[in-house]
Amino acid sequence: MKAEEPVPALVAVPEPATPVRQAPEPEVTLPVPAPAQAIEETSPVSEPVPVVQPQSQPEPVTESGEGTDLRDLEFRAIFSTSETFTLSMLARKIVSLPGIASCSLSTPGKLVQASRREENRLGNQAREMVETLRSLAKLTGLPEAKTFTLQTDRGIVSLFLEGDHCVCVNQEGPAFEAGVREKLILIARCIHRLRD
Questions:
Q1: Which residues are CB-neighbours of 184 under 8 A, at least 6 positions away?
Q2: Burial class (CB in 10 A: 0-12, 13-18, 19+), 71
Q3: How many Cβ atoms are within 10 Å of 135's Cβ, its own excluded?
Q4: How many CA atoms lie within 13 A of 106 on its CB side?
Q5: Cβ of 103: how many Cβ atoms within 10 Å?
Q6: How far apart are CA 168 and CA 154, in angstroms?
Q7: Does 165 fall in a domain?
Q8: CATH number of the domain to which 132 belongs
Q9: Would you say 70 and 61 are in contact if contact means Cβ atoms under 8 Å apart?
Q10: Distance of alpha carbon 117 from alpha carbon 167, whole angstroms
Q11: Torsion angles phi and psi, residue 113, rounded to 5
């Protein structure tokens, strides 16, 4: 008897791995000017650069009345006009705002009024009203208050105080239209610049 020959065991032999080929990254070459080349294309520093002058020179801007006047710049912006403002013109422009029936502008030396209708006039008591409101503000613990709205059975009056100056308006409705209150606050802040 023959000795049995050993049966070889089955062994899994992996196939040789094929390497994964990656695509070569493309080379990107951007032209970069040489520093000397960039300098050659510009003007040398030693040469003077010509200055271009405008055809006409603008008038100098001053607050003394010469040239364009900046004292009413805010008012021209608020009302989208290039007209020069006085207190009287400002009062008329305020009355033209939506919802304003009448206006009184009070400065230390002057009281100017404008109204859409005679019955809406605030009267000459505007200065007294301002002083009374200042006293009332102190009594209520709000001495720094600058804006007041009084609702009465005969209408609504709003006052905007700034120092010794006041913008007082008689409203046609219970509330201002969008942007009107803000315009009146800005006007009160800038009214001291006007002369009439």
A1: 94, 97, 158, 160, 167, 169, 176
A2: middle
A3: 11
A4: 22
A5: 28
A6: 16
A7: yes
A8: 3.30.450.30
A9: yes
A10: 18
A11: -130, 150
pLDDT value of position 42: 43
Percent helix, strand, coil in the chain (nearest 5)?
25, 20, 55
Lowest-confidence range among 72-86, 127-141, 175-189?
Answer: 127-141
Kindly report, residue by residue over 97-113, the tens digit of the pLDDT: 999 999 999 888 888 99
Query: What gap in Å lies between CA 159 and CA 167, rounded to an integer?
Result: 6
In contact, 72 and 85? CB cutoff 8 Å = yes
Does a structural domain hold residue 59?
A: no
Q: Provide the token pair at 52.
A: 């271009």
Is residue 14 a part of any domain in this protein?
no
Amino acid present at 68: T
Mean pLDDT of 129-150: 87
Two tokens, residue 166? 């006041």
Helices (H), 47-172: 73-78, 87-95, 126-139
- DSSP-assigned beta bridge partners for residue 162: 165
Q: Using a cut of 0.70, tell me whether the model's pTM lies above it.
A: no
Domain that holds residue 135: 67-193
R_g (Cα) of the chain, nearest Å: 40
Domain-located, residue 24: no
Nearest to 158 by CA among 82, 100, 118: 100
Tokens of 102: 């009448």
Instruction: For residue 126, give the amino acid letter.
Output: A
